[in-house]
């Protein structure tokens, strides 16, 4: 009874052209032809309704028309083109849909066209997919994945690897070396759009990931980025990478930057980074930080700057310029070629 009332409420909310409303005086669809005289109709809906060939008794419990019959919630059937298109038993628990080639026995079984599911223990698809709690096999994006329990599995094809949780996991792309060759090219006729990744993990603690990605951020350049990260996660992570850009018009390399560094949990104590531009004057930048910048040393193309908390700074440039200060001008010594020397003490100029 509750299910029948649910069908009734849903049908009313959905509108008067639904198949459930066909045996009511409110039906607005154009797919029914009334064969009896209009004056012979019986309209005491929802107790009784009849207008040949449709009718209902205690709607929606019993309803019928030229293409459907329902004794809800026990059984209902609907026809299309003179054949049964849908059958329901104890709706919505059991349904057979011949039009959409699907069926279900909720919550045990469902089937749709070329796939079936025995929820939640079994899934099968005609493309070769088979999933169960203890064994599974499926193919996605050219890679075939196979597992025996969720703890162990293998992959082959576009990507190759395996895992044994929680001891290790490995995933390698068969296109990785091919894409990595782009890093050594001086010209490239792009455009590029790809991402290849090789990764290895041990004991859910150590991780090594090697990623190369190509993309075209705009019509003027094609970019290739290579990143390598080694991370013993509890302690720290080390990283390195390279970024190359090619001019889309001339196909010539216009940027080549390399970097490396050290960070992670230990960056609270020490952090290191280094980058080098092979173009734009072969710029080089190196930075060391201790205790989140309490001691911060940075070098760029031979120019050095040092900051020590709280308030000590030191700068030295390749052109001979030097400056040392404490709390701005509590103490300051500055020497600039061609400008002479300046000394301040207790915010008072001592020497100019």
In words, what does this structure look like?
With 352 residues, the chain is mainly beta. It has a domain at 1-92. The chain contains two helices and 32 strands. It has a 32-stranded antiparallel sheet. A hairpin with a 3-residue loop joins strand 27 (303-308) and strand 28. The radius of gyration is 37 Å and the shape is elongated.
Task: Supply the key terms.
disordered N terminus, 2 helices, mainly beta
Describe the structure concisely for a colleague.
The chain has helices at residues 2-14, 176-180, and strands at residues 42-44, 48-51, 54-57, 62-65, 68-71, 75-80, 83-89, 94-97, 102-105, 109-112, 115-118, 122-125, 130-131, 135-140, 143-148, 152-157, 159-164, 168-173, 194-202, 206-218, 221-232, 237-247, 253-263, 270-277, 284-290, 295-300, 303-308, 312-316, 322-326, 331-336, 340-345, 348-351. It is mainly β.
What integer value in Å does the Rg equal? Answer: 37 Å
DSSP helix count? 2
Please estimate the helix content.
under 10%
First and last CA, distance: 99 Å
Count the E strands: 32
Please state the structural category.
Answer: mainly beta
Q: Could you describe the largest sheet, including whether it forms a barrel?
A: 32 strands, antiparallel
Q: How much is the average pLDDT?
A: 85
pLDDT below 50 for ≥5 consecutive residues: which ranges? Answer: 1-15
* Strand content bin: over 45%
Tertiary shape = elongated
């Amino acid at each position: 009874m509750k299910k029948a009332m649910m069908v009734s409420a849903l049908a009313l909310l959905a509108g008067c052209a639904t198949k459930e409303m066909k045996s009511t005086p409110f039906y607005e669809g154009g797919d029914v032809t009334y064969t009896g005289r209009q004056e012979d109709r019986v309209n005491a809906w929802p107790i009784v309704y009849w207008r040949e060939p449709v009718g209902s008794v205690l709607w929606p419990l019993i309803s019928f028309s030229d293409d459907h019959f329902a004794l809800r919630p026990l059984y209902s059937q609907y026809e299309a083109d003179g054949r049964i298109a849908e059958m329901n038993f104890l709706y919505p628990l059991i349904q057979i849909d011949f039009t959409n080639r699907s069926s279900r026995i909720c919550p045990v079984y469902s089937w749709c066209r070329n796939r079936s599911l025995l929820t939640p223990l079994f899934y099968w698809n005609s493309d070769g997919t088979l999933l169960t709690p203890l064994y599974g096999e499926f193919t996605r994006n050219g890679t075939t994945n196979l597992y025996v329990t969720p703890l162990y599995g293998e992959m082959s094809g576009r990507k190759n690897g395996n895992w044994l949780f929680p001891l290790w996991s490995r995933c390698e792309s068969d296109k990785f070396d091919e894409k990595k060759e782009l890093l050594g090219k001086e010209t490239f006729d792009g455009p590029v759009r790809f991402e290849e990744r090789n990764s290895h993990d041990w004991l859910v603690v150590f991780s090594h990931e090697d990623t190369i990605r190509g993309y075209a951020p705009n019509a003027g350049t094609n970019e290739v980025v290579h990143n390598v990260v080694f991370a013993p996660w509890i302690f720290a992570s080390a990283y390195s990478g390279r970024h190359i850009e090619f001019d889309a018009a001339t196909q010539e390399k216009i940027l080549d930057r390399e970097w490396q560094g050290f960070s992670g949990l230990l960056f609270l104590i020490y952090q290191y980074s280094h980058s080098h531009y092979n173009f734009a004057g072969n710029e080089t930048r190196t930075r060391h930080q201790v205790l989140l910048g309490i001691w911060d040393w940075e070098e760029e193309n031979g120019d050095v700057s040092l900051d020590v908390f709280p308030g000590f700074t030191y700068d030295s440039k390749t052109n001979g310029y030097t400056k040392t200060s404490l709390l701005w001008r509590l103490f300051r010594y500055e020497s600039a070629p061609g400008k002479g020397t300046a000394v301040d003490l207790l915010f008072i100029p001592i020497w100019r």
